[in-house]
Design a protein that fits this description.
Blueprint: H1 9-22, H2 28-40, H3 60-66, H4 71-83, E1 93-101, E2 104-111, E3 115-117, E4 124-126, E5 134-140
Antiparallel strand pairs: 1-2, 1-5, 2-3, 3-4
Helix pairs in contact: 1-3, 2-4
Length: 150
């Protein structure tokens, strides 16, 4: 799956769908590990997305078509991957822009009140292990209107 990022947009979207379908057979922890691994190979571009509001956030197909991912883009890709799998409904996912200090703003993917992706590279972090932080913005299935994508 590492070479998916060098393929045409159409092939990337098809392979992403196959990847999502392959997650149906895994335990939830293995799903999270697989999603982290998959998105860790996406091409990284510094400060690509200028997120002012939800209308500036690309849908999954636009995201894969552009094929440029900063921290927000990779978290968004993980979010879309998880919510567009067949077994997503047992969990609640949200993308949060958080501040750990005045100068330290990060984007994380929160899963239920249990896990966080994106706080440490390629690691699943227990939510209770996060340092104190302030949530600046939250994007979830409702305000990103994921139901329109199904």
């Amino acid at each position: 799956m590492r070479d998916i990022w060098n393929k045409s947009s159409e092939l990337r979207i098809k392979e992403w769908r196959s990847f999502r379908e392959s997650l149906d057979l895994l335990s939830f922890e293995d799903v999270l590990k697989s999603v982290l691994n998959f998105w860790s190979f996406a091409p990284f571009v510094n400060n690509y997305f200028k997120i002012k509001d939800k209308s500036s956030i690309p849908n999954p197909w636009e995201l894969l078509d552009e094929n440029k991912y900063d921290d927000f883009g990779k978290i968004l890709g993980m979010f879309y991957t998880l919510v567009l799998t067949n077994n997503h409904s047992a969990h609640k996912y949200s993308i949060q822009i958080v501040k750990f200090s005045e100068l330290d703003e990060s984007v994380i993917l929160r899963i239920d009140d249990d896990y966080v992706l994106g706080y440490e590279f390629d690691k699943i972090v227990a939510f209770q292990d996060l340092p104190d932080h302030k949530v600046c913005s939250t994007f979830n299935e409702e305000n990103l209107e994921i139901y329109k994508l199904r």
